């Protein structure tokens, strides 16, 4: 008889439930959220679980990789799908969640999630750390502007290197403000130095990353966009078609159809928000800067802008860039601005 298991992961302990083919609970337990403990628990069952479900989360990729390496039939489940399935359950608990995941595995009503490679996780961690330092640096600058504005001192437009000097000039002669400004500027200087270090590391990483180097042959795609996209895709072969990349990253409109009602809304915004942001930035640069080698793409997007507005044109161009970049990764070919005309001529 087949058996199916569900694991609800928490920081210290995970709830585990095993059911049989009829949905009857066979075994339940609390296990330490460690790969060795979970592998040992399943090894002591006396039978092999046909499918083991694990909801995607902070610890999930680590546990998934170890359990898969141990030979267990583990599946990583999409969080939104699991959450929607449990909405009818009036009692929310780790034990009930594990039971629900086990039933989803038994019924086959689940959507598997790709577990990214360690290399991709390292790239994403570097990009996340860089973005965090950058955001905190901006927070310090905005806080200083807000504090001084309350005293009628307007910072105005400044350069990156001239910001600290402008602040010191404004607070001169105000002892309390001088103390605040010096403390915040000291923190700002540290963040600025660390951010410069992250920038250097990211650019070095992009030059040695084969997929990122390939993607950077596309106009308006720099190191940040290339690394963000390449690390999110990880394995181009997991998409059957390049057109599936747009919906995967939430760049296609939502659809609601029921009876006589048929409505298309804004883009769904599901999936990786950092990829959407990176692609949108690339589209913005392509449409607003004098970039060479992308005349066909730019003309196509500008026709949309004249009809529907610049914002929708940028979103449409971001979606098209997502498809093009995936095709480049799948084929291992650099960006070809004449590909469309060559295909039409053939």
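^ structure tokens above, recovered residues below v
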């Amino acid at each position: 008889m087949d058996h199916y298991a569900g694991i609800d992961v928490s920081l210290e302990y995970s709830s585990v439930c095993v059911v049989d083919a009829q949905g009857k609970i066979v075994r339940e337990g609390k296990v330490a959220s460690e790969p060795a403990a979970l592998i040992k628990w399943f090894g002591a069952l006396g039978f092999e679980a046909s499918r083991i479900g694990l909801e995607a989360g902070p610890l999930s990729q680590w546990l998934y990789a170890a359990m898969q390496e141990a030979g267990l039939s583990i599946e990583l489940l999409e969080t939104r799908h699991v959450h929607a399935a449990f909405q009818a359950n009036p009692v929310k608990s780790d034990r009930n969640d594990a039971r629900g995941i086990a039933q989803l595995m038994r019924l086959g009503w689940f959507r598997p999630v790709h577990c990214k490679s360690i290399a991709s996780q390292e790239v994403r961690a570097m990009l996340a750390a860089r973005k965090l330092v950058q955001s905190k640096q901006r927070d310090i600058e905005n806080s200083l502007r807000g504090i001084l504005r309350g005293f009628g001192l307007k910072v105005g437009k400044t350069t990156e290197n001239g910001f600290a000097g402008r602040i010191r000039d404004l607070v001169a002669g105000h002892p309390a403000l001088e103390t605040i400004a010096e403390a915040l500027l000291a923190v700002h200087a540290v963040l600025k130095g660390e951010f410069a270090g992250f920038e250097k590391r990211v650019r070095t990483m992009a030059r040695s990353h084969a997929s990122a180097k390939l993607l950077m042959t596309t106009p308006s795609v720099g190191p940040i966009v290339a690394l963000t996209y390449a690390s999110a895709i990880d394995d181009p072969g997991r998409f059957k078609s390049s057109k599936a990349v747009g919906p995967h990253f939430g760049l296609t409109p939502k659809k609601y159809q029921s009876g006589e009602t048929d409505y298309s809304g804004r883009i769904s915004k599901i999936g990786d928000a950092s990829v959407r942001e990176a692609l949108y930035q690339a589209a913005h640069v392509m449409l607003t800067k004098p970039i060479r080698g992308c005349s066909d793409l730019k003309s196509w997007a500008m026709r949309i802008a004249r009809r529907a507005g610049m914002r929708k044109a940028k979103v449409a161009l971001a979606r098209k860039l997502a498809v093009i970049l995936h095709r480049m990764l799948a084929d291992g070919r650099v960006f070809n601005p004449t590909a469309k005309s060559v295909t039409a001529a053939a």
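Confidence is low (pLDDT under 50) at residues 341-346.
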